[in-house]
What does this fold into?
Amino acid sequence: MKIFFIVSIPFLNFLQIFSSAVIFITILPLIQLFLFFHTLGGNPKGLKLGIVDDEIIRYSECEKDSFVTTYSHDNTCDMNLISCRFLMEITDNVAEKVFYTSFDDAYVDAKRGKLIGIIYFDANFTESLNEVRYSPDDAGEQTKKNSLIKIYLDQTDLQLTYFIQRKLYTI
It folds into this structure.
């Protein structure tokens, strides 16, 4: 009988420690995750994205309902101000657009922390994009560079950077 108590008391202590360890190792972290994601979550609001579009003169041209960016004729497709089409896809759910006339002004505001990033379109973006699309082998290096949308994001807050990056990739 004495041996039974000697063996059973450590066994009961082991069961008690193991059951409390299971609670702390598995159940408590699950509760913490649930509470964290239900109290802190959702998409960030109030982000500002600087837009520098050297292709257009007035940004109000892009906002007209009658604005058409592609024309089809003779089994071909002509593009007009494709940068406007991209800008129209950026909604306030992604970021608030702040328009600038020069890259330097937008860069200064980004350095001051007023902007999460800058999107830049070259002056001949649509023409370069057409040339690269129709004859990529004949397009020069500068034409290929001008056909790119240049996006500069602030890397100080990586969560916001990844959020904006993910949203811009889906456009």
Summary: The first strand starts at residue 48 and ends at 53. The first helix runs from residue 2 to 39. The chain has a mean pLDDT of 83. The beta strands are 48-53, 70-73, 76-79, 96-100, 117-121, 150-153.
